[in-house]
Design brief:
Number of strands: 6
Bound molecules: fe (ii) ion
Largest sheet: 6 strands, antiparallel
CATH topology of the largest domain: Beta-Lactamase
Order of helices and strands: HHHEEEHEHEEHHHHHHHHHHHHH
Number of helices: 18
Strand order of the largest sheet: 3-2-1-6-5-4
Radius of gyration: 31 Å
Number of domains: 2
Length: 442
Amino acid sequence: MSQKINTDALKNLSREELIEKLQNYQQQIAGFRVAQRKTNTLFYIMRNLSQELELDSLLKLVMDEVKDILQADRCTVFLLDDEKDELWSKVGHGLENFEIRFPKSKGIAGYVATTGEVLKIDDCYNSPYFNPEIDRKTGYRTRNMLTVPMRNKKMEVIGVFQVLNKRSGIFTDEDVRMLEAIAPIAAVQLENAQLYVDLRHTFESFILTLSKIVDARDPLTAGHSYRIMLYGDIIAKKAGWSRKKREELKTAALLHDLGKIGIRDNVLTKTTRLTAEEYEHVKSHVSFTRSFLEQIYFSREYKQVARIAAAHHERLDGAGYPDGLKGDEIPPGGRILAIADIFDALTSKRHYRDRMALQKVIHILIDGAGKIFDAEFVGYFMQISLLKLVRILEHNSPQKLPEEELKILAHHTLSDLKKSSLENHAWTKVFFKYYLREYQEK
Ligand SMILES: [Fe+2]
């Protein structure tokens, strides 16, 4: 880029010629700077796109950068919905609160998606392709527009990238080249992100279904694994765990009783006292859980799932099962699940008893803190808001909760229920109305 200036040649130039030369150099330098900035932006987008797998964040990242570099007012990425033959905008500047959907045959975006051509429109309202419906819906006035197709690795159009209203003047050929360079990079990453989302949904629905299969063995335990997941996550959140660690814990929570599949029906649903042999058989569900989960392939972030799930009946003092682990030998996730599991078991109706009085449940947790249960995690659990608690207890109920009535519970925690003489408070009346409500057997 460096140019050597011939100073001898400059000596013979007039003042006007020198000024002109100088202006030319300045223009060249400005041009180089713009080009360098665009190259930097391209690298920035490429680097960040490859690290981003969340679809929404990915789209927003690309749109913000493109808007900035092309000096435009807005960007929208329309994705193609093959099944419905429509285009839809999941994210777009000015489209934060609603999604736009229209047939693939309509408008400039539709034209670009169908033909794969690039369209640069300098005056939209005088273009036969322009669909003013979107402006009418959004209250925006589109003046000019640049639209390029987004192609995947197989060169199929998967959407279009649209940039609206150049801040001054109209979009240039340089802008077209820039957007044409960005669109395929974004398209490939977008497809990867979509694939990742699909895989995640498959994984999550598979895990949820497995947990429901376990709970369905006995109607009285319906929703148990799901509630354990919610309770466990509240503790982990309060303990400041990362999103990844919490996801692993949630998976372990949903699958903690998977081994119950291996327990005989007549023992699992027995309403009278278990014999010693039957009790040992029930206890073996944890070993089944571990061996089943060890058969499933989990990615790196979920490697501890089997270990955490298999530790939900361990006790801090070593008197738990199946391994009799003590204190820190029990993985933290297992220590959290132990609290969530016992709390849900005691606050649920069982074949041989009703919901236990909540004061008694709290007493069991507090009394066991440091001996059976991890004291720090019990402390976090006691901070659970009563509003959240009612929502979890009632999550399976077909009745809609009266939010207005429940508001009062947001200011009180489980810990507040430790204190005596609670009966006369308005918030305790609301809470116990739900807690003591007759359990509906299905
Ligand atoms: Fe269990």
